[in-house]
Amino acid sequence: MAHYYFERMMGHEYPNISGYHRVTVDEMNGTTDRDKEQKIKKLMMANKINGIVLFGDIAQKPNIVESSQNEDSKIGPNVLYPIASLQKVYTGIAIQKLINEHKVCLSTTLNKFYPNIPYSNKITIGDLLSHLSGIDDGNQQTLTVLKNENDTLSFIEKNLNSTGKIGKWNYSDSDYALLAGIISKLSGMSYQSYISKNIIIPYKLKNTKFYNQVNNKTDVISGNVQSMGNGLCFENLKKKMSVALGAGGMFSSAIDYWNFINYLTSNKIIPLGTITSSSNKYYDGVYLGKGTFHADGSMNGCQSCFIMSYDSNQTFILFSNNISFKQMLNIRGKLADICFE
């Protein structure tokens, strides 16, 4: 069994799986993907998880393990699921693409785009990407679903709190909402159009959609269904998603997200090294470890995560809708033990 150390950073953990490579039967005394699949099934059943795990070599078709505690909320590989902060990877990649095209720099200051935000003359694009801007989210509650990106950006700018504590780690959805706005300003199109044109459409991610493209509650998986009812849960979910521009306003199937990470790690969207070469612990929507990167998402009772080892190409993705974020972090560690052993 592989051993890991975990670094703590505002409740997030960094598994060190550097140096591991894709296992073979001979190397692991008979350990195969089938063995891992059985271990994952037992883990999910023991923890009564309603969810799905995809694992294996990211360049190949994934191994899939499903666990259903509620047939009405079964998470299949092609079902639309609110990916929450896993969307930040899309936003980070889009900004990185614009940086690589020399349309903006990490050192470009926020006041070039949002001069009315306090300390915007000192906050840089790099600060936003790494959650070092000193910006707190403030109020993120809205009574209605926000209709468009302009409404969302106005809401964010009005409610955020720019503290001036630049350089201090502070996880903030507002950082990535502002980055989404910057993408729109630089590209001359909406953030949604830019992501669709440059990522979703060319890579045929047909089960990746923005919240305003999904109107039928039966098309998606929601969390908290048992306590709230599917209708109310879907309504509340879309309210939250409408506020989370660039940071939690997308649905994706598990298969689509697997393929998205595949395209990223194979250097098809941007060179992966432009992300992994960062000296920050968090950059472009992912937490960076030694030879790994990962992300976590949580919204409305739905928990999601992935860890990718670019040393070995081994990856796993977990989507669930009946566990807490704390439980997900615990399960994530156990999945790392299984998938990267």
Automatic annotation (TrEMBL):
SUPFAM superfamilies: beta-lactamase/transpeptidase-like
Transmembrane segment boundaries: none
Matches recorded under Gene3D superfamilies: DD-peptidase/beta-lactamase superfamily (3.40.710.10)
Pfam family, one: Beta-lactamase
Protein name listed in UniProt: Penicillin-binding protein
Protein origin, superkingdom: Bacteria
Domain Beta-lactamase-related stretches: 74-272
